[in-house]
Every structure is written in C-alpha cells, then in structure tokens.
Amino acid sequence: MSRQLHLLLLGNPRFGSTWRYPGVENGPAATLRSVIDAAKTAERGTFDAIFFADTLNYGPDAAWPHKSTEDFEPFTTTAALTRETERLGLVVTGSATFQAPYHLARQLISLDHLSGGRAGWNVVTSFAQAAAANFGGAGVLAHDERYRVAGEALDVVRKLWRSWGPDTVVEDRVAGVYNDPARIRVPAHEGEFFQVRGPLGASPSAQGHPVIFQAGSSVAGRAFAARNAEVVFTGQGDFERGRVFVSQIHDEARSFGRVAAPLVTPSLGFVIGATDAEARQVEETIFEHFIPEHQIGWLQEVDIDLTGADLDAPVPLAAFAESTQTHQTALAGYRALATQGNPTLREFLFRTVTAFGARVVGSPERIADEIERWFTGRAADGFILGPSGIPGQLETFVDHVVPILRRRGLFRHEYAGRTLRSHLGLPESFPLGEKSQRKPSVALH
Questions:
Q1: What domains can be seen in the chain, in order of their start residue?
Q2: Which residues contact 265 (CB under 8 A, 6 or more apart)?
Q3: What is the Cα–Cα distance from 115 to 151, expressed in whole angstroms?
Q4: Is the C-alpha dihedral spanning 111, 115, 117, 123 positive or negative?
Q5: Does the keyword Transcription regulation apply (predicted)?
Q6: Mean pLDDT taken over the chain
Q7: Which of 74, 261, 337, 406 has its CB surrounded by the most CB atoms within 10 Å?
Q8: pTM of whole model > 0.85?
C-alpha cells in the first residue's frame, strides 16, 4: 500500500486576536456553531481528525484584556461533535500533570464508544504556573520530571483500558451474570506518582482504545514520543528541521524496540487566496487586527519578558531566557523566529501568532506544492492544519487544495473505514493483543 498523506484540523476556533477579525461572530453560541461547521467541513474534506489543544488556565494576567472567553473544554466539545459527524476523528488534549489517570481513562474510552471508535488523546505535560495555581498551587514540576509523571500516567491509563478483555462480558440472561469477574484485570497500580486500584468499567471500543498523540520536541519530550506516541504533533518551522526531527523520532523509536515508528504531523498554518496576491491581502487584514500586547502576555509563560519594549525596534534578544523549565521547544522556536530576517518586535509578535510551526501564504497550488514537498521529502507524514481564523479559509482549503492533493495521488477521495485508527493506517489496539469478538461500538446519531 502506498504511503498516504494525513490531514488533521486544529479545532480551537478562538485564539490570539481572531475575535477581532472581520466577519467573526463572538459569544458561546456562535463559537459552538463555528466548531460544528469546521468539523463538518473537515469531514467533507475527508480529514483524518479534528484536534483540540487545551490549557488548564485562562492565561497570563497580562493577556486577559485581549483574550476571548469562549474556550470550551475539549471532552465536552468533542462529545457534542459525535452527534454532528460520522467519520471524522476526534482528538482531545488531556494533561497528564493535573488530570487524574482514572478520570482520563474513563472519559477517553467513553468518548471512543460514543464516537464509534474515533477518539484520540493528545498527552501533554502542563508547564504554566497559572495552571498549577488551579490545582492546589504546589508549583510546576521540573521539565524532565513532568515527563516521568506523564509516562506513569499513560501506563496507568493503558492498564485501566485493559481491565476488560474481549471475553469478559458473557451476558448470560438466564443465570443473571453479565460478566465473568475472573476475566476482569484489576491494575492495582502502585507507582512512584500514582496509586490506582481499578478496574475501569468499560469494554474495548471499536478500535480497541483511543489513538495516543503527543507533542514533544525537547530531548525528554522526543524520547517520550518515540517510546509511547502513535502520532507526534510537532512545530518544526522549516523543511530541513522537519526532516531531521522525523529521522530522530524514527531512530529513537527503533532504540525502544518499536517495529513501526509513530506518524509525525507538524503544524501548518496557512493563509489562502485565489492568487498569491489575494492571499497576501488576507495576510494584511490579519496583521491589522492582531494585538501585540496579547502575545507579549503569552510569551511570559515561556520566560520571554518583553514588557515595555518598543514595538517598532528590533527584537530585544536579552529578554529571552537562556533556558526554561516551562516549554523548552517553544523558547527555542521563538528565539529562531526572532533572529530570522531582523524583524521588528511587532513583526516578531505577529509571527508568534501565525508561524510557530510551518506556514504558507498563497494560492491553492502554492499550498498544495508545499504540503507535497514536506510529505514526499519525508519531513512530515501529514499536518495539523491551522487556518488563519478569517471566515472561509477552511472551506477554501477543502474546496480547492484537497482536490489538487487528490489529483496528485497524495490524499484519499473517501474514507476507507470508520475508526480513527483506520484513517491513520494504524492497527486496531485490543487489550494484550487480543482480537475483540464483541460487537463494535455504535455511535450515537
């Protein structure tokens, strides 16, 4: 089978200054409509999944005046989307730092059943002090320790998902026995960070259990992804860095004894127009409406303090910490952006909104060319696409870029299966390698 491109949509509808853009409706009801419309459009384009990032705080205090409040929690948002979509994968972000493994395991397998086997979990390690203040206020763990906690949390979640095997349910109506207790696996986990008895009261889903995503590019994060992830979300800003990252992930995955390396899907921001010139005009509209002060507030979370700096002077590199215990990859990525082309601070801040990962501005052909270059050059297995926030951008991508990718033989014309694992070309993941004899989950429509 030939290699197939994977496309996922970043589903968060309100980020940065998007609430100011022309044509954007604000408020909870409008936000929900925009999420549903985006999911349906992505499904029409046969995308693999919609992906929801998440943070467990409202952001740094300095960003509050400029941030919209419609920041829906991803589990309930995707639960709503199970009624609005039939094939599109639903990937949620859950913190292994602050969210208990038992709750995560239960929520995720429930979402997997409700969607008919379309769920994925983006495992993150929360680094913001503002988030720690919402969970007991004990402070943020050191960078590498967060990954140790995440490794154990993921281990617990997987054990809980294995509580019920494919032969646990007997459903003997005459004897009044629904399941065989001897076939229930009780994790009884006693670890360094977690003590969880279990079991979880849920059988395997149509795809076994949710697909594991992870976004980590630091040394510790990359090792975690290479060992555990089935899909790696990353923010490589250029083609060569993307190729190096894919090679590193593959090498490290082999070092852990994995037969199949994880898929690598960098973020790709795009601004699209009928022509390159029209796309640049859309870019100008975005630039006119972005709020520099909002970005200054957010950058404080990765130890970049630009408070009071002249927006029209060169970027003061002295404001960048040499190292951080928060988000090491972000700090390095922002430093690289600040040194490309000697931008003013205002220009740099705009780049941080739109170009932490790869980015392309142009016509459908230009965007398709860039996607093909990364894919065929082994710098990516696919992309998590971030539209600019201007209404109509996603629809234009689906109507004009997707057909080009299909004509070039890079992307599917229709879904071949119904589960997220099927879309991604991943094997069904049943407990302990067993094949389920149970009826598949039934999505609620």
A1: 6-276+360-433 (3.20.20.30)
A2: 6, 8, 231, 232, 233, 234, 380, 381, 382, 383, 384
A3: 26
A4: negative
A5: no
A6: 88
A7: 74
A8: yes
Question: What's the one-letter identity of residue 398?
Answer: V
102 marked as part of a ligand binding site: no
Other residues' Cβ atoms within 10 Å of the Cβ of residue 391: 16
Question: Can you say how many angstroms the Cα of residue 398 is from the centroid of all Cα atoms in its chain?
Answer: 20
Q: Is 93 annotated to bind ligand?
A: yes
Describe the crossing of helices 328-338 and 345-354 by its angle, rounded to 10 degrees.
130
**Contact of 262 with 229, CB cutoff 8 Å:** yes
Q: Is 218 annotated for ligand binding?
A: yes
Whose structure tokens read 């960070």? 193
| pLDDT tens per residue, range 425-438 | 998 875 434 443 33
Q: What is the number of residues in the chain?
A: 445
267 is in an annotated binding site: no
Map residue 14 onto helix, strand or coil. Answer: coil
101-114 and 143-161 helices, crossing angle to 10°: 50
37 is an annotated ligand-binding site residue: no
Contact between residue 183 and residue 405 where contact means Cβ atoms under 8 Å apart:
no
* Residue reference for tokens 């696996």: 185
